[in-house]
Amino acid sequence: MTKPLKIIKIGNSAGVILPKEVLARLRVELGDELSVNEAPHGIEIRRHDQGFEEQMKTAREVMTRRRNALRELAK
């Protein structure tokens, strides 16, 4: 699905209006949160998953604490 979106001014920020078809595909509605991530082909917009965010936070903490072990394993 390719939909051109126009960037609009919202206060001191900028935003886009997502068509209802896009909201339906994302399975979101007004008030829900979205996550924006970098991807190899551009950016991804997904429904925010709090559980995943907590898992990633824990993974980052472990990777920071075990940096040397991870370097050795990567050899």
Q: Brief description of this entry?
A:
The chain is of the alpha+beta class and 75 residues long. It is built from three helices and four strands, in the order ββαββαα. GO terms for molecular function: DNA binding.
Notes on the structure:
This is AbrB/MazE/SpoVT family DNA-binding domain-containing protein. Pfam families: MazE_antitoxin. The strands form two sheets. The chain has a two-stranded antiparallel ribbon with strand order 1-2. Strands 3-4 form a two-stranded antiparallel sheet. Helices cover 41% and strands 27% of the residues. The protein is α+β, with helices and mostly antiparallel strands and 75 residues long. A hairpin with a 2-residue loop joins β3 (34-39) and β4. The protein has three helices and four strands; from the N terminus they run ββαββαα. It starts with 6 loop residues before the first strand and ends with a helix. The chain has a single domain (7-74), classed as Pemi-like Protein 1, Chain: D.
What's the CATH topology name?
A: Pemi-like Protein 1, Chain: D
Largest sheet: 2 strands, antiparallel
Strand content: 25-35%
What is the quaternary state of this protein? single chain
Helices and strands, in order, run as EEHEEHH
Terminal CA distance: 41 Å
Q: What's the β-strand tally?
A: 4
Total domain count: 1
Structural class from helices and strands? alpha+beta
What is the CATH architecture descriptor? Ribbon
Top-tier CATH class: Mainly Beta
Number of DSSP helical runs: 3
Helix content: 40-55%
Uncertain runs are none
Mean pLDDT: 87
